[in-house]
TrEMBL record, chain A:
<dbReference type="InterPro" id="IPR038766">
    <property type="entry name" value="Membrane_comp_ABC_pdt"/>
</dbReference>
<feature type="domain" description="ABC3 transporter permease C-terminal">
    <location>
        <begin position="683"/>
        <end position="803"/>
    </location>
</feature>
<dbReference type="Pfam" id="PF12704">
    <property type="entry name" value="MacB_PCD"/>
</dbReference>
<feature type="domain" description="MacB-like periplasmic core">
    <location>
        <begin position="460"/>
        <end position="652"/>
    </location>
</feature>
<keyword id="KW-0812">Transmembrane</keyword>
<feature type="transmembrane region" description="Helical">
    <location>
        <begin position="413"/>
        <end position="436"/>
    </location>
</feature>
<keyword id="KW-1003">Cell membrane</keyword>
<feature type="transmembrane region" description="Helical">
    <location>
        <begin position="680"/>
        <end position="703"/>
    </location>
</feature>
<feature type="transmembrane region" description="Helical">
    <location>
        <begin position="337"/>
        <end position="359"/>
    </location>
</feature>
<feature type="transmembrane region" description="Helical">
    <location>
        <begin position="724"/>
        <end position="753"/>
    </location>
</feature>
<feature type="transmembrane region" description="Helical">
    <location>
        <begin position="457"/>
        <end position="481"/>
    </location>
</feature>
<protein>
    <submittedName>
        <fullName>ABC transporter permease</fullName>
    </submittedName>
</protein>
<feature type="transmembrane region" description="Helical">
    <location>
        <begin position="285"/>
        <end position="317"/>
    </location>
</feature>
<feature type="transmembrane region" description="Helical">
    <location>
        <begin position="20"/>
        <end position="39"/>
    </location>
</feature>
<keyword id="KW-1133">Transmembrane helix</keyword>
<feature type="transmembrane region" description="Helical">
    <location>
        <begin position="773"/>
        <end position="796"/>
    </location>
</feature>
<dbReference type="InterPro" id="IPR003838">
    <property type="entry name" value="ABC3_permease_C"/>
</dbReference>
Length: 810, 373
């Protein structure tokens, strides 16, 4: 075996480029999988870690399902004999530029001794007495680009707050993007006197709490909080996982194509080894060991790259999670040995499985074979029945159409892509044949030469077209989705301007006051309540224009409006209807502060604002059940001829804390959130595109180098250097071209499955299928350009080489 | 081994260790200790200072004095089970006033930070139990009025003429009744206890030096009936330590002959005795006599080294010629070391006659300023 390993080492010394490509291919695939896995975990596990670092691990939380806790509960519990240490917390969101921060207001004196923000010296005094004193972690300070003892200017509900950083705490990542303040100051600044968000304590005191808690409050442990975070971000995580697995598949194609090519180059060596008595088993063992070493080294590099990638891209995931789910995740990833080991072992096993065909082929090399036979043997891995691709496509499609869950649709997509991967080389070669039969001259000849090694090129064509398709498909889905959202939001916002206030509240009286203004033709208003599971209940007061703005998925306005206005029926958004399996005519029960209330489902409408869903009911019924007269926003429809500036000054007088948002601004804000949400998808699409580029270069370099002997023959027959270079360039460019041509329908398939099946199942909303052309317009020329560029090196090398030694070898 | 293999192995090893380093658990944050000097000597114009004698009145002066920067209610005591096993306890409530606030619109807004220390010395196992709590002086979480001194559910309540002390920590608890056996005594000059050259380096200070104590002590699941003697110290002011003073050694001694003795030996930063050291001798009939630095001599006989290498003087020889006392004090056991936010030593001691070696009393010793190097 030692001798065999020695031969393989010498081979890689002679072909360092091939070695490098194999390593990069696997490393890139593994990096994406690792990076995504790490980012995904942050969304679940690290959500809790901020309070964990304040009050210790394994905590239990007292919450009030009806809303904020009354702070008197803390006094009542804390002064009860035998009371455990309890940490009162008030949490709010702050905005710093386009970043979301979490304000964690605590009683510093109730903090555990081992807590990260234990009171020390004068900082405690400042926290307790100053209205704007805050503490942040050192890394937060760096992330925000502030010096120690700087002033942090943030906004809370539209109001600017200037917080003075009076101390930093040791650099724990869990406190990243958290601003810690004293309860008194935070209640004062945010106008939330009397409120707590929750009270936290060690879970070992559960029994004591059960005994002493008043009715109606809930105890939520860390596991439950993780589960609800997991449920909230399920859609987003599923999307990321799908992308990462597809990237790995592309990476595996790269390693397959490289190893298959390496085998061709070593046919001669293996033949010699067989001739000197090395058994088939030994040869196979050698190749398997080689794969394990290559894949193992590549995967190790991939783990490191993935870790770096996750750290770098984490904000792309955290931002939308903070915007959409109101959860500021930790800014630091938490890798575990378990995760690393799992990904590494999986990568090596998948690499071995993917080169199974290559190993089988190696077994067939007869002793003494020193060169490739004229009639190329088919690699065993690709000796597949003609009907297999079709079967994969059909069964994948069947799986997608006949099931409802997300995992089957991912499996179905995988099957279909495998079918595509098998189909790509066959169809691609047919296309090449069309070119080659037309006309005579050097180019058709070059293409014919290319076709003669089609089996060898098959994996490269598959990998390439899949990777290109994936990049383009994801891009098309995101752009199509954006167009849908734009269309939806433009239609939905029917008022001219929306009034919100940053301090205090709007209520029914304000609505009545505004209705009397001569500038205002009519009004709408709404009040939202966030439920435990992240879904919303909205009390709507709508006018005819607002009613007309709904886009109905099922049911219609004529029947829905009277029932909803009568207070007996509700509207559901599409995600809510899908998640609960409800349709018009069904009943839905809502938990309200006045007890459970049951409603008919009147209609289902399109909504992309909340993937946990939203239930809309008529305002008066909402106010009756929730005992809540407040309004989050009032939509103003202006009388013809009323200028916006005129209204603005009048509003500024009547509502000093009021903010007016125009229709166009609402649309822009919505799309800005959308764009931030999909930045990670773009990043992953670009990464897959880069893997595609690696696959392309690897395949083309291989092609150019492999055919050295044939090029030598052409040179010997009198083809000038320039002509030879032309042949090589033609071949690499056409290879890129067929990959691109195949990638177009595949990308459309991916786009269609993501838009029509994955999005509805992951998030609950359906998308209208549109066909944005931009991703293809970028990828097609780029791939062709890369194809030509990647041919340039072999073209130059072959053209400048002396043909004699190569010919002698044959 | 070939060079390339070595290079690959080194790279693998480096990458592997980098990955392993990524999975390290987060480091626990560094916790900082409060410095006694900072707590006791911070001078602020926002607070009144004690500059001379003023009449005290009770029960009003049992309640907190928010105009002054710091204040404490301090119980220590030697206890015994029916089998004669030794226990000691300490319960202290500290108030530290905060700089004036900005009038925050919140029920949590506070003018003071409160700290409570609860300790139990178990002479049988030589274990020292300690628990510390903080609370703000708002929301009814901590405070002191004429009838009740409390921090959350730890409290001392006046049940005339006795005090009832109830405090429960995770692994131990006290429930004691303390009945004064002699009248309250004013320390220093009618309660004006001067500690430095500036008349403002002073506190208002009174004590009840002998309280008959009975009740229950819980250690883990074990409940013990106990009896013994306690000592109460009450002190408030705005700047107790003068510039250049490093700490103090405080003795509260109850002698079998009925006399009670308090010695406060102030130490300068250079280790020497401060001329501002003071003391008080209380006769069995309740009459008391002020002692100044020249009236007594305290010499360290033995030091105990804690895990951090700090050396605590746990054994002393004390001479008070005017009282005919030449005594030796010994810690009942060495490790009665407070290690929470504040680093000090507070524990039960035995008193022996220096000449005969005979046990002649019991007491409590507090050592401060040794653990902050």
């Amino acid at each position: 075996m030692r001798l065999l390993l020695e031969s393989s080492r010498r081979f890689f010394y002679r072909h360092p480029g091939q070695l490098l490509l194999a390593l990069i291919g696997i490393a890139a695939g593994v990096a994406v999988v690792t990076g995504v896995a790490l980012m995904r975990d942050v969304l679940i596990d690290a959500l809790d870690s901020a309070t964990e670092s304040l009050s210790g691990s394994e905590t239990i939380r007292i919450t009030d399902p009806r809303g904020p806790l009354d702070e008197s509960l803390y006094r009542q519990l804390a002064t009860t004999p035998g009371a455990p240490a309890l940490l009162p917390v008030l949490s709010s969101r702050l905005r710093y530029g386009d970043r979301m921060l979490e304000l964690l207001a605590v009683d510093p004196l109730s903090l555990d001794r081992d807590s990260a923000v234990r009171p020390t010296g004068s900082a405690t005094g400042q926290l307790l007495t100053q209205a704007n004193a805050a503490v942040v972690s050192e890394t937060t300070l760096q992330r925000l680009g502030l010096g120690p003892e700087g002033v942090l200017e943030v906004s809370h509900s539209g109001e600017t707050l200037k917080l003075e950083i009076v101390a930093t705490v040791s650099a724990r990542r869990e406190l990243d993007d958290r601003v810690i303040m004293d309860l008194a100051a935070a209640q004062h600044l945010t106008g939330r006197r009397g409120e707590l968000s929750f009270i936290e304590t060690s879970s070992q005191h559960r029994d004591w709490l059960i005994e002493h808690l008043p009715e109606g409050l809930e105890l939520v442990d860390a596991q439950q909080r993780r589960e609800s975070a997991a449920a909230l971000t399920a859609g987003m995580r599923a999307n990321l996982t799908a992308m990462s697995l597809l990237s790995l598949a592309v990476g595996l194609f790269v390693i397959y194509s490289v190893l298959a090519f390496l085998l061709v180059q070593r046919r001669r060596t293996i033949g010699m080894l067989r001739a000197v008595g090395v058994t088939q088993g030994r040869i196979q063992a050698l190749l398997a060991l080689e794969t394990v070493i290559l894949a193992g080294l590549g995967a190790l590099a991939g783990l490191a790259l993935g870790t770096l990638m996750a750290s770098a891209l984490l904000d792309l995931v955290r931002q939308p999670v903070a915007e959409l789910y109101r959860m500021v995740a930790s800014a630091g990833i938490r890798p575990s040995l378990g995760l690393y080991a799992t990904v590494w072992v999986m990568a090596v096993i998948m690499a071995l499985a993917s080169v199974y065909g290559v190993l089988r082929e190696a077994q067939r090399i007869p002793p003494g074979q020193l060169a490739r036979t004229v009639h190329e043997t088919r690699p065993a891995g690709l000796q597949l029945s003609r009907w297999l691709p079709g079967l994969l496509l059909v069964s994948g499609a069947a799986l997608i159409v006949t099931t409802r869950g997300l995992p089957p649709v991912m499996a179905g997509l995988f099957l279909m892509l495998s079918g595509c991967a098998l189909l790509a080389p066959a169809i691609g070669m047919q296309l090449l044949r069309l070119f080659s039969v037309r006309g005579s001259g050097l180019m058709p000849r070059a293409i014919k030469m290319l076709m003669s090694s089609r089996q060898r090129l098959a994996p490269a064509v598959s990998a390439l077209s899949l990777a290109l398709a994936l990049s383009a498909g994801v891009g098309m889905m995101v752009l199509g989705f954006r167009a849908t959202v734009d269309d939806w939001v433009s239609r939905l916002i029917s008022a001219d301007v929306y009034l919100t206030v940053s301090q205090g509240q709007l209520d029914s009286q304000d609505v009545e006051d505004l209705r009397a203004w001569p500038e205002i033709e009519m009004l709408t208003s709404s009040r939202q309540i966030r439920m435990d599971d992240g879904s919303m209940v909205v009390g709507y007061d709508l006018n005819r224009k607002a009613w007309a703005a709904f886009e109905w998925v099922s049911g219609d306005r004529e029947s829905a409006q009277p029932a909803v206005e009568a207070g007996t029926a509700v509207l559901l958004t599409e995600p809510m209807a899908r998640r609960k399996g409800l349709e018009p005519g069904d009943r839905i029960e809502l938990a309200t502060p006045s007890g459970a209330a049951s409603f008919d489902v009147a209609a289902v409408y399109r909504d992309f604002s909340n993937d946990r869903g939203l239930v809309g009911l008529i305002g008066w019924r909402f106010r009756e059940l929730w005992q809540d007269e407040q309004r989050d926003s009032i939509g103003l429809y202006l009388q013809a001829g009323t200028g916006l500036e005129e209204l603005e000054s009048k509003i500024a007088d009547a509502y000093p804390a009021g903010n007016l948002t125009t229709r166009e601004q609402v649309r822009e804000q919505t799309l800005a959130v959308f764009d931030r949400t999909f930045r990670i998808s773009w990043a992953l699409a670009i990464l897959v595109g880069m893997i595609a580029a690696i696959a392309l270069i690897s395949a083309l370099l291989a092609l150019g180098l492999e055919r050295g002997r044939e090029y030598a023959t052409l040179r010997a027959l009198g083809l000038p250097r320039r002509g030879l270079a032309g042949v090589v360039l033609t071949q690499t460019t056409s290879l890129a071209a067929i990959a691109v041509v195949m990638a177009v329908p595949f990308s459309m398939l991916i786009h269609a499955v993501l838009s029509l099946a994955v999005q509805p199942r992951a998030f609950g909303w359906s998308l209208a299928l549109t066909w944005p052309w931009q991703p293809l317009a970028v990828i097609i020329p780029l791939a062709l350009l890369l194809g030509t560029a990647a041919g340039a090196y072999p073209a130059w090398k072959i053209a400048s080489r002396d043909p004699a030694p190569l010919l002698r070898a044959s | 081994m070939r060079l390339d293999t070595v290079i690959v192995l080194v790279l693998v090893l480096l990458t592997g260790s980098w990955l392993a380093w990524q999975t390290r658990p987060p480091e626990p944050p560094a916790t900082e200790r409060l410095r006694v000097q900072n707590l006791m000597s911070g001078e602020s114009e926002d607070f009144r200072r004690v500059t001379g004698p003023e009449p005290l009145s009770f029960p009003e002066d049992h309640a907190q004095h928010p105009d002054y920067q710091n204040e404490w209610w301090y119980f220590t005591g030697n206890l015994e089970t029916a089998e004669g096993e030794r226990l000691g306890y300490q319960f202290t409530l500290f108030r530290f006033a905060l700089p004036p606030g900005e009038g925050l619109d919140s029920a949590w807004a506070t003018e003071a930070m409160w700290m409570a220390h609860l300790a139990l010395s178990d002479g049988r196992s030589e274990r020292f139990y300690q628990a510390e709590r903080f609370a703000r002086g708002a929301m009814g979480l901590a405070g002191a009025d004429e009838q009740r001194w409390w921090l959350r559910d730890w409290e001392v309540r006046l049940d005339d003429p006795a005090w009832r002390l109830v405090a429960e920590a995770d692994d131990f608890a006290l429930e004691l009744e303390l009945t004064p056996q002699r009248p309250l005594v004013l320390q220093g000059d009618a309660g004006y206890s001067r500690k430095g050259p500036d008349p403002g380096n002073a506190s208002r200070y009174y004590s009840i030096t002998r309280l008959a104590t009975g009740g229950e002590v819980r250690i883990g699941d074990e409940v013990l009936s106990v009896e013994g003697l306690s000592w109460l110290d009450r002190e408030w002011g705005s700047s107790q330590l003068a510039e250049g003073q490093a700490g103090w050694d405080w003795f509260a001694i109850q002698l079998d002959d009925g006399r009670d003795l308090m010695l406060a030996r102030l130490r300068n930063e250079d280790g020497s005795d401060s001329e501002w050291s003071y003391g008080l001798l209380v006769e069995p009939d309740g009459r008391s006599r002020y002692l100044n630095a020249e009236d007594y001599r305290a010499v360290v006989e033995r030091r105990w080294r804690d895990a951090n290498g700090n050396r605590w003087p746990v054994e002393w020889r004390i001479e008070i010629p005017s009282a005919g006392l030449n005594i030796r004090t010994r810690a009942v056991f060495d490790d009665q070391h407070w290690q929470q936010s504040v680093d000090y030593w507070e524990g039960m001691i035995d008193i022996h006659d220096q000449g005969s070696g005979e046990a002649i009393g019991r007491g409590y010793l507090e050592l401060s300023g040794y653990g902050e190097g």
